[in-house]
Amino acid sequence: QSALTQAASVSGSPGQSITISCTGTVSDVGDYDHVAWYQHNPGKAPKVLIYNVNSRPSGVSHRFSGSKSGNTAFLTISGLQPEDEADYYCSSYTGSSTPYVFGTGTKVTVL
Amino acid sequence: EVQLVESGGALVEPGGSLRLSCSASGLTFIHAWMTWVRQAPGKGPEWVGRIKSKINGGKIDYAAPVTGRFTISRDDSKNTLYLQMNSLKTDDTAVYYCAAGVGTSDFDHWGRGTLVTVSS
Question: What's the confidence (pLDDT) of residue B86?
Answer without folding.
Answer: 98
